# Entry
Amino acid sequence: MTVSTGYEVKPTSLLSREFVREIWFFRRLIGLFIWRDIIVRYKNTLIGAAWYVLQPLAMMLVFTVFFGGIFARYIGPLPYPVFAYGGLLLWQLFSRSLSLGSTSLIYFGPMLGKVYFPRIIAPASFVIGTLFDFFITSVLMVVLMAVYGITPKATTLLVPFVLLFTLMFSMGCGSILAAVDARYRDIRHAVPLMIQVWMFCTPVMYPISYIPEKWRLLYSVNPMVGLTEAFRWMILGVGDPPATVILAMSAGVSITMFVVGVLFFQKVQGTLVDTL
Amino acid sequence: MSEFAIRAKGLGKQYRLRDVGGMSELAARVARRFGRGKDAKATHFWALDDVSFDIRKGEVVGILGHNGAGKSTLLKILTRITNPTMGSASVHGRVGMLLEVGTGFHEDLTGQENVYLGGAILGMTRAEIHEKYEDIVAFAEMDGFMDLAVRHYSSGMKLRLALSVAIHLDAEVIFLDEIWAVGDHAFQLKTWHRIEELIASGRTFVIVAHNLETIGRLCTRCLLLDHGRLTMDGKPGEVIAQYRLELRQRSKSQRATSESVMLQSIDIAGTQLMAENLAMGDLLDCRITLMAQRPGHLKMATMIRDNWGKVIAAGEAEHGRWTSVPVGAGRNLFRCQLPVALPAVGAYELVVQIAEGDAMITTELPFTVVEREMLVKDEHGQDQAVPALPMIWETDEDAQAATVRLVTSG
# Structure
């Protein structure tokens, strides 16, 4: 049964009622792209999923060996490997979704010139798809916690909120980066560098208490600060929960970035093909 | 529900002439902001300029135009691949498309997965796609290959599958851009028939093709684009004729570059058909004036092309197509006659070819075959219009003389 649809063609397309209807119309496509993205990453590989665990695992080992001693006194009774891996777990979600989101248009490149679908689906499907990787890498977290005899706290159930805000943030940033990259190709070179630096500005391998008090608020403008601390605390529960003001900032910046990013992308998406 | 499939109003599309990104572009933009930069005209051009039209459901519209006239741009805008710079359009109904010589397939997926992808883009459910799946594979002649990743397909395979998908999936408005090079002859015939079937079932088509016969046969209406503007909108026959006229004028300004010394030394000072409206049985009478700088020999040939540019008859000389004529220095007048024995009324053109060795120049003279009819009474006494053929009665003098001798002698 085919339902008749139609559309308007206009110079600039901002958010409107049409947008929601369109996304609904193309909903199957989003699922298809996510599924396709995952399949393609595993096809032709021998150990497939294991690669996703190897990266945070290796990083964690490196950090433990080189930095474990330095930061140990800041994290109290928590074993450093678990601490570091917890941070890396969320970080990987963010860095992958940002990286994939910002290069999503390149990936879809030729297709964009031949068929139509709402372009926002490109970064969106990649960003959502990183959740799958997250679940795979979280397996090792469970293993580590078992090894060190740490039981997860009840607050673990709040983790989905952290994931949500993280993805909103990377979606917002990724959308802007992807759109700008279509015009100025520098972006795709800048993003990996940016992510590397960003990681050091986030409490992944060190706790927030390592940062001097007077800088902490400024430091926390980076939403990944609050989100990483929250993530670790929710699962491991050691020490105080992150300060409310920091959590509020993280949530606020994430949401704002999401809205700004998607709006910007929507404004620009109509002529992306001209410069891609 | 609207009776219109597509409505376009004032569509315009501006493109940059130079590549984007980089310091020079940034610098140019800043300069312009301060009122010092180069005029926009130097760096931009309008691929489409104020294009408006309405297409009703069920129409088969052909878009004609020279290379760069804006045909593909128009289709890209109507299918939302890119946004117009100004103007607006609305499209009613599910849209299918095959644009450019590319496919929109994802290389890493298998053929089967891509078919479902294509359907999902169209908004179809898995069930709907599943229904058509076998037909799609059979039409594309891709049985057995569907589990292979598309990156391993030959370009022909990709195109056949893409075309098959575009045609079979449930679309009410279908955009086709230059798909006529896909597949071998048998496949093209198949495509043609399938498109005819779809047309008969009421789907709306927007077609870009350079093959004028295709356009002439399939389309109910034609739009002519020239440098981004819509210059004509009407019946295929008329638009095609106009298009061909423009092509001719364009090529006139690009006179043949011949390596022939003799050809370079001549100039066609005038060509004329003594009559431009002819009926069956008439004689095409063509006069050509050549100015030559030196004497020599040239070969001449003629042929007749129909409204779509297809050659349908050729002049016959003593040995093959070419007659060798001597050319003297100065003014030469030639006259060529051909009988009008053509299959139908309509617009044609006489092409006169002048050659030396491999080099050739041509000149075209359009003419029209009209019907000259006479009224004759049929068996019921009713008037019937029939083609009139020129008839000449003469006394056959020799036979007459022989008969008289017989009578008087015997």
Summary: DSSP finds eleven helices and one strand in chain A. The first helix of chain A runs from residue 17 to 25. Chain A has a mean pLDDT of 87. Chain A has one domain: 55-275.
